[in-house]
Amino acid sequence: MTPENFKEILDRYTRGVCTEEEKQLVDAWYANIQSENTDHPDNLENQLWAKLQPVKANTTVGRRATWLKIAASVALLIAAATFYLVLQPVNSDATIAARSESNRDLISKSSTIEIRNDDAVIKNVTLDDGSQVSLQPQSTLTISENFSSGARVVSLRGEAFFDVERDTLRPFYVYAGDVVTKVLGTSFTVRAIESDKKITVAVKTGKVSVSTKPGVSVNQSSSEVILTPNQKAVYDSEVTRVKKEFVEKPEVILPKPTIFKMKYEETPVSEIFRVLAENYGVEFEYDEEIFADCHLTTKMSNEGLFERVEIICTAIGATYTLDDAVIRIEGKGCR
Prior knowledge:
This protein is α+β, with helices and mostly antiparallel strands. Helix content is about 35%, strand content about 30%. α1 packs antiparallel against α4.
């Protein structure tokens, strides 16, 4: 029974129009409240009752007080139900894992729709929520039958590019091998070829969460990574690890790039790194004090991100490494 159902029964009870069964239910519930020593957090029920309790000057007031207490308890019941059903799933990792496992069951236990691409060209699929899937040849997409009305859950064998319609109330889950990708609304590629021991998720726009399925142990402190544009997660089944990396060819993500419009004449290298980070959505790590005296006069041509970083590092006598989707610059500076 939901809190809403109980409120309706209580309303009928107070108006004297409820059934005998409903009357017995309310009487039993109220008797239980009277007899139990409730241990709600922070004595919330007692606080509510203290605020609502009137002075008992006569029997009528006493009866009114009784009903006020019932109302306070109902408010507490509804608040507790709301906290449990709405807030807990957001804050509890265990609940998220359980829900994720339940989503997987939607694929394995319920009726499903299977879309295969046996052709030599990409097959474009539009899902019921408006999301677009570009299914690569020799790939299969499995969709839960209740996709349009329930959880947005699909399973993939092979490779596909997803452009997901945003829905904050219904996250989109892609199950591929031992990996689960969760998004609200973004575009990304999932590659899970059965003959390949690695599963890759690469983000083009937005943000996604990539983790292993419940029950799959991983060789690291966390089984989840958060990806942003130009980043990818690689799950290696041999070492059971989810690693965050850069995509092979990062692209400029700004709708109106600024990287080609700026003139770099004796420009501090820190400013050039800032512009690159802004345009590509990447992170640089370096000692600003060491490179404070490094200035460059240059222009940006059609090189890729890493080629540009290589040119800059050569000019200032530095080197760079890629670690956990971060570009780390090291050197002695320009003094």
